[in-house]
Amino acid sequence: MKNSKQPGKNSMHNSEEANHHAAKTPFTASDIPIDDDGSIYHLQVKPEEIAPDILLVGDPGRAEFIGSNFLHDIEFENEHRGLVTITGTSEISGEQATIISPLKTTVATSGIGTPSLEIVVNELVALNEIDFETRTRKSSYPRLHIIRVGTSGGLQAQTKLGTPIITTYAIGLDNTGLFYEAPYPDEVCERLEGELCELLKYSMNTNSRFYGKVHPYVARAHPAIVEALLDASTSLSVPTRTGLTVSSPGFSAPQGRDVNRVKPSILDLDKIFSEFDPGVNGQQIENMEMEASFLIHFLGGIGYWAGAICPAIANRQKDTIDVHYQDAIKNATRVALLALANIRSRYPDVQIC
Predict the structure, then answer these.
(1) Could you report the per-residue pLDDT of 239-250, keeping only the tens digit for each?
(2) How far, in whole angstroms, is CA 65 from its chain's centroid?
(3) For the chain, which has fewer Cβ within 10 Å, the N-terminal or C-terminal residue?
(4) CB–CB of 181/8 below 8 Å?
(5) Do the beta carbons of residue 86 and residue 106 sit within 8 Å?
(6) How far is CA 122 from CA 29, 47, 148, 246, in A?
(7) CB neighbours (10 Å) of residue 60?
(8) What is the pTM of this model?
(9) Do residues 98 and 46 lie in contact, with contact meaning Cβ atoms separated by under 8 Å?
(10) Could you tell me where the beta strands, DSSP code E, fall in 110-175?
(11) Cα 160 from Cα 313, distance rounded (Å)
């Protein structure tokens, strides 16, 4: 009985000990699968084949498009399991910007949803941090800067189709992030988690099998990424909006679409979020997509900088869609690449030890 109140402390102590031990003990082959040629398992990429400045996209075709149209002097290009990875040099100049040096950049495919993205991002981190010869973590490594460029559904009626949404906070309806104990980056995340849990519980039928079981987590895009994206959009004369982003674990019911014979457990989910006031500098919940939450939560937890810029190619309140959304993707890509270049120029050669 006398030890019954101590498991939290003991678990924390054991975790610290395990982390200390892991720093010295090689990771196993099953922990980090590496092929005979030195390539990591899912991406089939070697450590020297990625850059620390990365664009992450869901669609492999979009990765190929960006590689063909925005990168030159291609150093590496590969496709495996539908995951396209390309490393080359980007060179975007804004109308109002000073000249930015060419930037070695990787564009990588995350696939659809946080489970696929979790695999890709973990492998990118391993490629950056792990010595593949010894299977141990390096003593220092560069900080990764990763920006997601994707498509999304706009939740605010006044947001024009095609407008790139710059994420300030991401609301994760997926459960992938719940397996990574990243601390709250600020009090806003903690407050919003409590408020959104109550909101979704209140919005469900009390007879629902899943009543009270949907627990969102909230992550903050790195402020330097948000600032760089805003600066780049101004320099390139690309109108954008900043706001909160909902990352859903699916496309239909998890985004408020009632189109199947199995009814959603929460009706009108898109409307619920569009009407909610997050109390964040006058911002609103602007869009829904499927990946930003885990990207920002996980990378922020290990000291990397992450953010997202996703054009709203549909307006959920007006029931409209932009069939010519490729122009919006091009604009968002230009903004993201210039933002990465600006960040690297402002904060060069940062090492994490």
Answers:
(1) 999 999 999 998
(2) 20
(3) N
(4) no
(5) yes
(6) 15, 13, 15, 22
(7) 18
(8) 0.91
(9) no
(10) 130-131, 136-137, 141-142, 145-149, 152-154, 164-172
(11) 9
Give the separation between CA 352 and CA 106, rounded to whole angstroms.
20
Pick 84 or 345 by higher pLDDT. 84
For the chain, percent helix, then strand, then coil, each to nearest 5?
A: 35, 25, 40
The pLDDT of residue 95 is 59
With contact defined as beta carbons under 8 Å apart, do 307 and 329 qualify? no
What domains, with CATH codes, occur in the chain? 32-348 (3.40.50.1580)
| Three-state SS at 222 | coil
Token pair 């899943």 is found at 210
User: What local confidence, expressed as pLDDT, does residue 16 receive?
Assistant: 44
Rounded distance between C-alpha atoms, residue 278 and residue 43, angstroms: 37
Query: pLDDT tens for residues 286-320?
Result: 999 999 999 999 999 999 999 999 999 988 888 88
For β-strands 103-109 and 285-289, DSSP reports them as unpaired
Exposure on the CB side of residue 186, measured as CA atoms within 13 A: 10
Here the tokens at position 71 are 């990168």
What is the spatial distance between Cα 77 and Cα 274, in angstroms, rounded to a whole number?
A: 40
- CA-closest candidate to residue 167, choices 332, 342, 352: 332
CA–CA distance, 309 with 240 (Å, rounded to integer): 9
Rounded CA gap, 276 and 62, in Å?
32
pLDDT of residue 9: 42
The residue assigned the tokens 């964040």 is 280
CB atoms within 10 A of CB 345: 15
Cβ atoms < 10 Å from Cβ of 14: 11
Residue 4, pLDDT above cutoff 70: no
Indicate the DSSP class of residue 185.
S
200-209's contacts with Cβ under 8 Å and 24+ in sequence apart are 200/266, 200/272, 203/266, 203/267, 203/269, 203/272, 204/265, 204/266, 208/265, 209/265
Whole-number pLDDT of residue 100 = 66
Length of the chain: 353
